[in-house]
Q: What sequence folds into this?
C-alpha cells in the first residue's frame, strides 16, 4: 500500500522532527510547507515558536534559532506577562503557505507540515486549506502534535475551547478521510526504517521539482 501522507506523533523530545528531516534531506530542494522553529534566549531557554516557510531553501534550516524582536511568524511567545499565543499567524502566513502549495503543486516535490494540532485548530482559513491539501494528490509529511503534548501546552498557554476533542477529530479525519499514515514514534530503529521506506517509496522515483526550470 502506498500511503497518501505520512505523519509522526509522539512525546516531546522523541526525535520526530530530527528523524523526518534526516530522511528528507536528499529531497529537500523540492520542499514546500513550513517548519515550526523553536526560538531561544541567550541561555538556551525556549522563549517562543514561529512558522518558517521552507520553499526555495537549498538546505534544511535549523529547528532552533536565537530569538530576535520582530521575527516574522511567531505564534507563541514568552512575555513578561507570561506566554502569549498569536493564532492569527496561521490565518495569514500559515494559510498563505498552504495556498501556494495548492495553487502551484507542480513546483513542489512534497509538503512539509510541522506540529499541527495546536493553537491553529480554531483558525478556519488555515484548517480549510489544510483539508484541501490533504485531499489533493500532494504528498504531505510532518508531525501531528501528541495529545499529551497538547495537554502540557494547555498548562502554560490558554488553548481554544475544545482543543483536545478538536485535535482528536483532526487525527480521525486524517486517517479515515485522507488516508494518512500516522506513526507513533519513540525513536526506535524499526520505526526509523519504516519512515525512510515510506518516504523513499513516494519520492525516490519522482523528478526533482524546481530543477526543471
A:
Amino acid at each position: 500500500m502506498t500511503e497518501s501522507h505520512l505523519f509522526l506523533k509522539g512525546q516531546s523530545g522523541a526525535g520526530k522532527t530530527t528523524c523526518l528531516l534526516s530522511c528528507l534531506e536528499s529531497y529537500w530542494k523540492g520542499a514546500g510547507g513550513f517548519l515550526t522553529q523553536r526560538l531561544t534566549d541567550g541561555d538556551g531557554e525556549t522563549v517562543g515558536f514561529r512558522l518558517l516557510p521552507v520553499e526555495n531553501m537549498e538546505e534544511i534550516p535549523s529547528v532552533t534559532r536565537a530569538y530576535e524582536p520582530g521575527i516574522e511568524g511567531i505564534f507563541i511567545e514568552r512575555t513578561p506577562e507570561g506566554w502569549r499565543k498569536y493564532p492569527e499567524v496561521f490565518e495569514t502566513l500559515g494559510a498563505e503557505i498552504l495556498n501556494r502549495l495548492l495553487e502551484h503543486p507542480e513546483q513542489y516535490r512534497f509538503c512539509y507540515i510541522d506540529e499541527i494540532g495546536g493553537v491553529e485548530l480554531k483558525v478556519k482559513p488555515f484548517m480549510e486549506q489544510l483539508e484541501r491539501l490533504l485531499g489533493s494528490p500532494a504528498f504531505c509529511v510532518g508531525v501531528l502534535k501528541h495529545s499529551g503534548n497538547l495537554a502540557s501546552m494547555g498548562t502554560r498557554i490558554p488553548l481554544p475551547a475544545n482543543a483536545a476533542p478538536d485535535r482528536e477529530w483532526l487525527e480521525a479525519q486524517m486517517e479515515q478521510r485522507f488516508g494518512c499514515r500516522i506513526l507513533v514514534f519513540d525513536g526506535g530503529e524499526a520505526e526509523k526504517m519504516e519512515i525512510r521506506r515510506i518516504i523513499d517509496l513516494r519520492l525516490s522515483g519522482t523528478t526533482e521539482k524546481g530543477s526543471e526550470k
